[in-house]
Structure formats: structure tokens, C-alpha cells
């Protein structure tokens, strides 16, 4: 009799899982997470119809629970900054120290330089440097961090936003609570199972529950991190000091002459180098042309023979 009760309980548990999947589809359609909500008092030996109808809305659970996890607001802050500076190295160094001293983390970093002609003869640095950062700052210091950036350069753009994920967070927390209850009861059933068939049946369901439980816990941990650490994307741009001095006519002539001579020497060097590269091909091509001309043209053209004939003709005329 005890064996029959265990098998019946396992069968009803599978039906409960199917009912949970049906309820989860309805929840997903309403904009929530997949999965049914089970109360702590739900009995697995209840009738299938009763188990299928045992779902709890977030509002009902929030009213009945005093758990601060389910009642506190979960807010995710994010911001964006663009800073221009004349002292790039000093700004970047100070910014890194400020982030680390406030418990922040540099999650992503990308730096590049637009001086693509650095290898030319001129020693002047004509480009500018840029730094892109994604920073995670403790949420309690988010507003202060955004305002303190004025001390590191000219803030040309600043934006911030906040997302309330309380409902999503609580949905996941309820799913975790329900799955932990199922896991505990399945473990009890596993200890009481008397046959291999019962153990296999319970173990399959236990594996499904544990997989879902781990997934929801990972989601909640990720949301906890987003709530605890705000995300700030930053761009630091190096700028040059503007000068309105205009060179006079003779200075412009001198600069133009220097640029022209520099271009002339560069182009001459390029032509000489190109000629040296092409020299073996030109030699081979000349040899080929020489043999072709010798074979085709000299075959029918004999200038010495013609000169000889003319000389003989002239001599014959003198004799006559």
C-alpha cells in the first residue's frame, strides 16, 4: 500500500509540473517570468485540478510577505559622459585613481590615437587621443561620480537613467522559493522511494527542478550586481588649444616651398625605387625585343648588301 502511495504521489507531481508549465505560459504572456507560483502550503498529494489552480500573483504575495527582498525597490542606474581635456595624460591618470578609490571597476576599456602620420619627418604630434570606458560604480556613489567629472575636463554631454526592476526581481525570487520547496519535497520522496522505478521517476523531476532553480538564481545574482553597481559609459577626448594667429604672406610662401621640395624628393625617391624594382623586367624585355627584331626585321633588311649593290652599279656605270 505504501508503495502504491509513493507511485501515485510521483504521478501527481509530474502532473503538477505540467500544470506549472501551463501557468508559466500565461505568466509570460502577461510580461512576467516563465513558471507557476506555488504556495508553501500546496500539497503534492492534492488533486491535479487543485495543483493546477494553485498560483499566486505577485501582488498577493507582496501583501502577505514581510520579506524585505520582496518589498524593497530594485533600481538600476546607468549614465553616460563625454569629457574633453587639454591635459589628456593627467586627466586619464586622475580618472583611473578616482574610480579605484571609490570602489569602482573598469569593465571595458578602448584607447586609440588619430595621429596616423607619426612616422613622418615632422616631430609635431598632429593627432588626438581618445579613451572609451565602461565603469561600474557603487550605486550610492553614482550621483556624486557623475557630478565630479567636471573637475577632470569639460563635460560636453551627460545623461543618466534609472530602471525599476522590482517586479522582475520579485518574480524571480518567488520562482526560486517555489522551486526550493519542490526540491526539498522531492529529496524527501527520494529517501522514501522503495523501488528503482520510483527513484528514477523522482530523480528526473528533481533534475528539472534543480536546473530551473540554478537558472533563476543566476538571474537574481545578475540583477543584484546591477542594483549594487551602476554602469557608466565614458568617453575622454583630447583636444588642442585653439590659436587664431594667421601666418603672413612670406611665411605661407616659405611653407609652400618647403612642402613642395619635400614632395619633390619623396616622389623622386619613389620613382627611383620603382625603377630599381622594374629593372630586371626591363632587361628581360629588352633582350626579348632585340631577338624579335633581329629575327623578323634583319631577315629581310640587309643594309650592307644594298650598299654593295649600289657600289657595283656605280662601278659598272663608270666602266661604260
Briefly characterize the structure:
This protein has 320 residues and is α+β, with helices and mostly antiparallel strands.
Name some characteristics of this structure.
320 residues; alpha+beta; Alpha-Beta Plaits; 5-stranded mixed sheet; 10 helices
Describe the structure.
The chain is α+β, with helices and mostly antiparallel strands. The chain has three domains: 2-72 and 167-212, no CATH class; 75-165 and 231-238, 2-Layer Sandwich (Alpha-Beta Plaits), CATH 3.30.70; 250-319, no CATH class. Helix content is 61%, strand content 16%. It has ten helices and five strands. The chain has a five-stranded mixed beta sheet. Helix 1 packs parallel to helix 8 (196-228) and helix 7 packs antiparallel against helix 8 (196-228). The protein is elongated, with a radius of gyration of 43 Å. The chain starts with a helix and ends with a helix.
- How many runs of DSSP E, i.e. beta strands? 5
Question: Would you list the SSEs in sequence order as H and E?
Answer: HHHHEHEEHEHHEHH
Helix run count: 10
Distance between the termini: 153 Å
Residue fraction in strands: 15-25%
Which term fits the overall shape? elongated
What is the percent of helical residues? Answer: 55-70%
Q: List low-confidence stretches.
A: 1-66
Q: Give the integer mean of the pLDDT values.
A: 75
Q: Indicate the radius of gyration in whole angstroms.
A: 43 Å
By helix and strand content, what is the structural category? alpha+beta
**Main beta sheet: strand number and arrangement?**
5 strands, mixed
Strand order, largest beta sheet: 2-3-5-1-4
Number of domains: 3
